[in-house]
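Posted in: Structural Biology > Protein-Ligand Complexes

Title: Requesting predicted complex, norvaline in pocket

I'd be grateful if someone could produce the C-alpha cells for the following input. Sequence and ligand are given below.
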Amino acid sequence: DADEFPSDFLDIDDLTTDQLAQVLARASDLKAGKDLTQLPRTTLAMLFEKPSTRTRASFETGMTQLGGHAMFLGPDAIQLGHGEPLKDTARALGGYADAIMVRTFAHENAETLAEYAGVPVINGLTDDAHPCQTLADLLTIREEVGDLSEVSAAWVGDGNNVGRSFAVGAALAGLDLTVATPEGYGLGDDVYDRCAELGTEPTAVDSPEEAVADADVVYTDVWVSMGEEEEREGKLPAFEGYQVNEDLLAETDAAFMHCLPAHRGEEVTDAVLESERSLVWEQAENRMHAQKGLLVELLE
Ligand code: CP
Ligand code: NVA
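-- Reply #1 --
Done. Output follows.
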C-alpha cells in the first residue's frame, strides 16, 4: 500500500504529500491540546555522534509529554564511540527501544541503523539531511506566514543538510522556493531531481538580492556545519555577499528563519536574528510539536 506510513523517517520525502499534511495536522492538534494521544511505556533511544541542543531537548521533552521516555546515548558514553560496529549497536538498541533517533555524519549510517534495528529510525540530522527540522519549519510557516501552497521562500547561503531537506519538503508541500548559493555549495543535483519528481523544482538564482526580492520567508543556516570545521578557511571566502543582514532585507518585509545555532556576524547579523521578522524561536519550539506529531504517527 503506497499510503502506508513509512517505517523509518530518514528524509522528508519518505512521506507523501498527504502523510506530511497528516503529521503537521497531528502536530498542531497535539500543540493545541486537541489531541490527547499518549505513548505510555514507550522508549525512544537517542543516538548522538554530533552535539545538539534543540534536537535532544525537544525529543526528550516530547517523549515525556507523551507519557514515554527518551534515553540519551552520547558519543563518548557508549561502545559505538569505542569501536563497536553500528550494526551491532542497532540490533542491541532495537531489542529495548520502540524507536531510535540518530544524529550522525554519513547519511549511510542512518540507513544502516534502519536496516538492522528492526524498529523505526528517525533522522535527527546527517551530513545530507535534517527532516525533523523541515517538519518544524513547515509547521512554523503555516502558523506564522500562510498556507504552504501560497508562500514563497528563499534559501540563501550554504546548500547544506538543512537546505536540502527544506527544498524537498517545499516541493512536497507545494511551497515556492528560490535558492541563492555560492558556486560549488549548491543543494546538489539529487535534490533538484527529487524535487522535480515531486512536481516543482526550486528556482536557482545568481544573487541573494534576487532570491529575497519576492520572498515571504528568507531562510539561512551556518556556513560551516558540524564536521566541516577543517574546511572553514577554504569555505568562507565563497560566502562573501551571502550574509542575511538589514541591507539585504531593506526592501522586503519577509520573515526570517534559521534552524539555529546561528553564527551571528557570519550568515546572519544580530540585528536580523533579534528583529520582529525573526521566527527562530517559533521554529525551535515547533521542533518539539512537530516531532510529537511524527512520533505519534510512527508509533501509535
Ligand atoms: N536545529 C538543530 O537541530 O539544533 P541542535 O543542533 O541544537 O539540535
Ligand atoms: N547545518 C548545520 C545544522 C545544525 C543544526 C550543521 O549540520 O551543523
